[in-house]
Amino acid sequence: MAGKILLINQGPAMIVERLAFLLKEAGIETAVVEPAAKQIELEKDDASILVLFTGDFVYDSQDFLEYLKDTCYELDKPLCVVGYDKELEKVTDSIKSAKVADSVPREVITRMFTRPFDVKVLAAKFVAMLSAEEDPNSQNQILVVDDDFSFLQTVKGWLGGKYSVAVARSGMQAISYLAEHKADLILLDYDMPVMTGPQVLEALRSESLFANIPVIFLTGKSDRDSVMSVMHLMPNGYLLKSMNKEDLLASLDHFFKTKKWQNL
Fold first, then answer.
1. At what angle do helices 171-180 and 197-205 cross, to 10 degrees?
2. Is residue 7 a contact partner of residue 39, using CB atoms and an 8 Å limit?
3. pTM as predicted
4. Which of 16, 89, 183, 250 could form a disulfide with 143 if both were Cys (CB 3.0 to 4.6 A apart)?
């Protein structure tokens, strides 16, 4: 199996050595490094997944954690964190999110594993993640909802080469479409007449048939009040309309890849 996993751990540890052995038995190349930027720099480009094993060092390693966050974001590498609850909490506080174009946040940590755990189960999860990376899903279905016809055509043109894209010019049109068709993701305009984006999202979340469809706001609004006003509806993120084609595609690719790993 192709792929390499970079295991980051301070000092020798039997459980890390055991994990590396099991991964090698499954045909996966591994490297074990200290939590130091110089060591990670030598291995990061070839790594498919980075795995951080926490310890007491995380409480005094803010600079390293910032480096790790920036590295995983810039290279779009999945970061998995293994540790005890308090250590995981510290890492989560330090690696909350990185920012993509126009200051839109994107989560960096892909999976978290709490100690104690069965090392064989952990190894199997990493093997499954690499298998999912090698075996892409069928084309994902995206529904774009916006009252601006010109904008809809632009976004459909940008995404159409990689995704199956449908469009709707109102909230009611979107709900009617979803009654008959599948959608793996909805890109929803925040400001629309008759039914605003938040009202559409509220309607979707209240209907069991649509409640679990991921929804990302594609909008010109990025102020805190707009974001906070819909947090109780649990949108899956915000992307700004000012994003260019490359940044939009990169954000959606990251979303679907992360979703696939988390569903394993």
1. 30
2. no
3. 0.64
4. 183
